[in-house]
Amino acid sequence: MAEGNMDALFAGVEYDLLELKKKEAAIQRFLEESKSLLIDKFEALVAKQPKKPFLIYDDMIYTYEAIEDMACRVASIAKSWGLKCGDCVAIMIQNEPSFIYTFLGLQKLGISVALINHNLTAHSLIHSISAVDCKALIVGSGQELLDAALDVLPELGKLPVYIQGVFKKNLPPGVASFDDLIKDTFPTAFSPTIRSEVTLMDTCCFIYTSGTTGNPKPVYISHSKTVLLSCITALMVDHNQDDTIYVVLPLYHSTGMFLGLGGTLLAGACLALRKKFSARYFWADCRKYKVTLIAYIGELLRYLVSQPKNKLDGVHNIRAAIGAGLRMDIWNEIKERFKIPKIAEFFGATEGYTGFSGVSEKPGALGRLSPLLSRFDLDKKVLVKFDVATATPIRNEKGRCIPVAVGEPGLLLSRCPDHLLNKKLYKAPSEETEKKLVRDVFVPGDVYMNYGDSFVLDKEYFVYFHDRLGDTYRWKGENVSTKEVANEIGLLPFVEDASVYGVAIPGHDGKAGMAAITLSSNAKLGNKELQELYAHVCKELPFYARPIFVRHIPMQVLTGTFKNKKGDLAKEGFDMDVVKDPLYFLDHGNRAYSPLTKAKLINFLKSKL
């Protein structure tokens, strides 16, 4: 890392010392907490504080012993299926109490749990289920989830599928009622010895991430990593049993799962859970449930800012907001308008080895990456020059990576811990892990992980997020694989090829999807085809992965390795003063992709995308 002048080097020493102190505290906390599994902590809390509220959902309060009762029933059911330590069960459940007691019940037996995104349908859903070699699938309540499960049932073979929220008499053939089993099962407690063979390095759960393969990939989350990630809340805000943590983020993602459920269990606190985010009810919920901590992603807070101002905006008990992705342009507005005493920003990746934590609370900053900190950093982090098209490092004449200067965007790499060098990141072919690794970075034999994101340093070595690179972009809080979207669009008979990329939209975090398509020989893009395209993406892709814009181009531009060259397309976006090709937008009103005009664009951007 370029060191700059001495003034810059020492300008943030105070923050460096604070970072080091926090890291030391985090390591000590992790060492203390990692003596037991997350399920052990839950059972200890049940014994210690059985009547204490553990979960608030839809105005109902569930105590620790109430969730324990349901978790024991789930464990008894799983045992009756013949499941044992090391087996895997997939669950596809929305944010509701059954997610928590189902997860904890399976953990009682040492069963690993695959956390399926409940927005998935069709091919993506089939892939996610089959990728983990699970012994059963448990589907949460709701007609949409039931329909999604029934749609893929023929592709799941003999996999048992259990549906929550409905009794057998109301279910079609091929699936079983989980509620019938719950009703007929006694909540017998299990001795922890039933999972005595489970170690901290065994798999607790799988959390899915999208990447260059075009399909969701299940990331191994060990029991040790589960505890480590759950320590983030303690690291950032030092929470305690008197806190109530408000979570509207999906529990199938790391932030909701570990800041929310994990953080609650480490402190013996209370979790206030909502099925999905509502800007209208967010602050009302916080006041009603006496929330003290909120978990966020940047998009969530931007939706809150866009709401009309209210005299009650700052009336609450919140002492801190913990999350990722809050941009500098609204940081101060969030803090001042909603009177949040502390914003604790961090960065990490589900499959990653390291991260940033903004203990200084400098607007937009994720932490510091100074030369002083680097000397003490066991998980050495570096920003290096990179190729925008491939999201891979650029090498010098000696074949080594090149650190960036202050103010220059750089690709984030972090050194792989020796004890994890030979472990797979994903339950997928080993080459998927290898794609994330960069070898011989600075010296022969060293190995770093490529995070696929670029960051920039200011003159005081504070780190700021710059862009998401490569074959993924982020929209509506979800990572979207461009290859997955392109592959689905390419299945249409009139589409020859598709280039998919993210484009920035004013007033929105992340990037919206855009597809540049070429047509098959003799095909046309008329009303019929535009309706078929709309119907296809709505059926096959979750809402956040559906391209917002479509561009009809005469031919694709390829790289020397025959990959679609998307850099110029992404830069031009949907700028109608630059783009002369026909443009279309996702028009739910007409259930089609409709031609885009400047007037329609203005109205469309004002709508709720």
TrEMBL record:
Its top-level enzyme class, in one word, is ligase
PANTHER family, from UniProt? LONG-CHAIN FATTY ACID TRANSPORT PROTEIN, VERY LONG-CHAIN ACYL-COA SYNTHETASE
Q: Give the protein family.
A: Belongs to the ATP-dependent AMP-binding enzyme family.
Coiled-coil residues are: none
Tell me the first and last residues of the signal peptide.
Answer: none
Q: What biological-process GO terms show up in the record?
A: long-chain fatty acid import into cell
Q: What is this protein called?
A: long-chain-fatty-acid--CoA ligase
The organism named in the record is Elysia marginata
| Superkingdom of origin organism | Eukaryota
Q: Which Gene3D superfamilies does this entry report, sorted A to Z?
A: 3.30.300.30, N-terminal domain of ligase-like
- What's in the keyword line of the UniProt record? Fatty acid metabolism, Ligase, Lipid metabolism
Annotated catalysed reactions:
tetracosanoate + ATP + CoA = tetracosanoyl-CoA + AMP + diphosphate; a very long-chain fatty acid + ATP + CoA = a very long-chain fatty acyl-CoA + AMP + diphosphate
Q: Which GO terms describe its molecular function?
A: long-chain fatty acid transmembrane transporter activity; long-chain fatty acid-CoA ligase activity
Q: What is its EC number?
A: 6.2.1.3
Report domain AMP-dependent synthetase/ligase positions. Answer: 42-357
Q: Record's InterPro entries?
A: AMP-bd_C, AMP-bd_C_sf, AMP-binding_CS, AMP-dep_synth/lig_dom, ANL_N_sf
What GO cellular component entries does it have? endoplasmic reticulum membrane; plasma membrane
Domain AMP-binding enzyme C-terminal, first and last residues per copy: 485-563
